Amino acid sequence: MKKKLKVLMIDDHPMIIEGYKNTLLGENQKEYQIKIDIASNCDDAYDKILKSSQSTPYDMLFVDIKLPPSSDGTITSGEDLAKHAKELLPKAKIIILTMHREDHRIHNILKNINPTGFLIKSDLTSSELLLAFNNIVKGKAYYSATVNDHFRKMMTNKFSLDEKNLKILYHLSRGVKTKNLPNYVSLSLSAIEKRKNQIKEMFSIAKADDQKLLEEARKRGFI
Amino acid sequence: MITSFFYRLVIIFLVITLFGCNNTDKVVDEEELKSNLVISHIEEARNTEIPNDERKAILDKAYAICSTLKNSTYKRDKINDISIGYYTIKDYESYKRMNEKSLKLATLISDSLGIAKSYGNLGIYYRTSKIDSAYYFFDKADQIYSKMPGNEYSHGKILIDLGQILRKAKDYSESESVTIEAIEKFVSADNEKYLPICYTNLGILAKFLERYEEAVNYHLKAIEYTIGTKDEVSQTLRSFNNIGTVYKSQKKYDKAKEYYNKALSYKDFLNKRPKRHALLLDNLAYVNFLSNDLLDIPDLFYESLKIRDSIKDRYGIATNTLHLAEYYKSRGEDSISRVYALESSKMSSELQSNEELLKAYQILSDVSDSEKGLEYANRYIKLNDSLIKEERLFRDKFARIKFETDEIAEKNLQISRENEILIIAILGLTALFLLGYIIFRQQQSNKELLFAQTQQEANQEIYRLLLNQQIKLEEGRQLEQQRMSEELHDGVLGRLFGVRLSLDGINQRANDGFTEARNKYIEELKSIEKEIRLISHDLGTESLPSDVAYIDAVESLISDLCDVNKINFEFNNDENIDWEHIDDQKKVNLFRILQESLQNIFKHANAKSIKINFDFIEDKINLTILDDGIGFKSEKVKKGIGLKNITSRVSQMSGVVQFLSNKDSGTVVSVSVPT
């Protein structure tokens, strides 16, 4: 007898959901009987998660990060949604599928959600999706190569930068000036300066200018 | 008018042809030559050995030359000298004519002294013939001298003349005061030459005013002033005669006789002056007759008459014959008396010597038979009346002349007062106008200042708007880029991914031998996705801070100008410069400086490339503009308007500017401004 799987796919692009479906409903139909629900926004997704938590919970959630926010504004992204889902459906396996491949994003998602699957859309092929799916169904985590890279970088650096430091570096790399950083990172200018100096010390490039800092950060994979 | 103009032209022509290329030095020589000639002629005419008509001819010549001299006080002086020459040769008409000329000239050149002198001389001309005219001229001269201190001697001469005329007009008291004034003038001029005349006049006046003792004293004083001079004898005789006359009037005949005899004792002197001699003899005889001392009467009368006949002293004859008529009348020899009285009356009326005529008529009325006597009595009364009338007339006339001049003086005073008021008014108006003008200028300059200020503000505003515009543009651009980035990232990329995944999924299941081929296209799609993501990333990350706008404006200025002028440029902006927090005035100034410098480079430098740097060093913004043009000599062009503008703008920002250049080694303009 085929194993029953209840899956919620959350993505605002119907074309993408179509793609998931096309991939999963081929081979896997032989082993699993997959029931797929679709949500294209946070409200819809939250409703479905809530409902399932009260009846048959989803076994698996495909979560996109960038989603139209909920109408009450409390849930603004897949990240928020995943947090809720983890509470409501503790057994459900969460697969994050995102276009974002920036290190701090990956870093944050890993830290906040720690999903069973973490796939970067741009890397993703149908066979990889299948592979990930099969792994995850069996309880094994699956990360895209990019995500794995991130892990590796973090390991070799032996230290990790906290979210705010990463943000500082990220915005600096985008060309934002230090004095404008308070607009992007919720810290005072002096706090930001302090953190910048800490980062420089950690990179053992104290007293170097911003350009040097960014070069180093890039080399170490923080950007 | 036209003819005079024509003459002038002819004269000018003659002068030009005669003196051709004479320069001014020669003209001056000409003047000097002429004046020397005039002086020598005047000198020559003084020679008493030459007959009078020759002397006159010389004087005529002198005047002919003198009249061609330039108008000046010198010329006027010479004309006066010539007039004196005429006077000494008794050519009174020429004398008068000369003085009229000098008066005209003096008036023309506003030579007051000359005018006074000429008036005085004209007075002298009239003083024997027409005393009212004489009075007029002397009075005018007196007026002028009164206003010109320092000419006391000349003034005194005029005053004594006036005094004598007034005496003749029987205005004794006025005459006395004028004479005393004359004495004062002579004393203050320290010149006693005319004092005897003054005292003589005072003596005569005192006699008429019946202050006899005083009169004698005056006459004696007159002698005193001549002691030791060549006039001593002459004056002594004159004074003795006068004193005799005083005593005669006092009926002190012995005293009178004493003085007449004293005078007559100067026989040598009198022999040379028969007129005086005759006068003294006649006077002595008359006193003898009056005192009934008839020892040598009438012989003495005849002696005198004989002399007078011989020298044709007609005044003397008139008096002499009158005395004789009186004598014979007293002797009861009426017929002889009548003959002399008739002769006297005839002579007197010819000479218009009215006093004598009156007396003659009186005698005639007594010595003639009743009918004739009545006629003479009538004549006497008529003449007496007319004399009294004339006397009064003279005084009136003098008063009128005096009054008119007073009136003129008053008028002058009034005019001068009016002039003063006018001057004050003009000065006041001028001051007012000046004040107004100054205020106007002040306001104008204030306005200009205000205008400059508003212009500066407007400039700043324009720049702010320009920058704001730039910022808005930038913002719009960024917003649009952001939108495009997101659209690409979330929309296009997502859908593409979906399509690719679907295709991939289907491809996995398909088994038609084309799987590989499709996989290849799927990979291609994947690489397209990657490309789009990169584009999206590039678009999204270009988040420019707002202060970039200023630098954008600067860069667009540079690139626009350089493109137009076809010059290569390199522009570097130090990121550490916090343009957003630098005040607009400074930004505008730096912008302008850059603009000015670029204009200079395009106009003069003939450069191929330019390098412009904004550097931030030690809290200072350093703007360096470097070109590879022909350069200039720093000292030479330092004061050009463009460089001045730059300098003033830099000093406005309390910065430092340097222009470094050498011929053919390009130019560096470096500006350093504190933030």
Task: Summarize the SSE layout with pairings.
The complex is a heterodimer of chains A (223) and B (675).
Chain A: E1 3-10, H1 14-24, E2 32-39, H2 42-54, E3 60-64, H3 78-88, E4 93-98, H4 103-112, E5 117-120, H5 126-137, E6 142-143, H6 145-157, H7 163-173, H8 189-202, H9 210-220
Parallel strand pairs in A: 1-2, 1-3, 3-4, 4-5, 5-6
Helix pairs in contact in A: 1-5, 2-3
Chain B: H1 2-19, H2 24-45, H3 52-66, H4 73-88, H5 92-108, H6 112-126, H7 131-147, H8 152-168, H9 172-189, H10 195-208, H11 212-224, H12 232-249, H13 253-264, H14 267-272, H15 274-290, H16 299-311, H17 314-330, H18 334-351, H19 354-367, H20 370-509, H21 515-541, H22 548-565, E1 568-573, H23 584-605, E2 609-617, E3 620-627, H24 634-637, H25 641-652, E4 656-661, E5 667-674
Parallel strand pairs in B: 1-2
Antiparallel strand pairs in B: 2-3, 3-5, 4-5
Helix pairs in contact in B: 2-3, 2-4, 3-4, 4-5, 5-6, 6-7, 7-8, 7-20, 8-9, 8-10, 9-10, 10-11, 10-12, 11-12, 12-13, 13-15, 15-16, 15-17, 16-17, 17-18, 17-19, 18-19, 19-20, 20-21, 20-22, 22-23, 23-25
EC number (chain B): 2.7.13.3
Transmembrane segments (chain B): 421-440
Pfam families (chain B): HATPase_c, TPR_1, TPR_8
Question: Can you give me a brief rundown of this structure?
Answer:
The complex is a heterodimer of chains A (223) and B (675). With 223 residues, chain A is α/β, with parallel strands linked by helices.
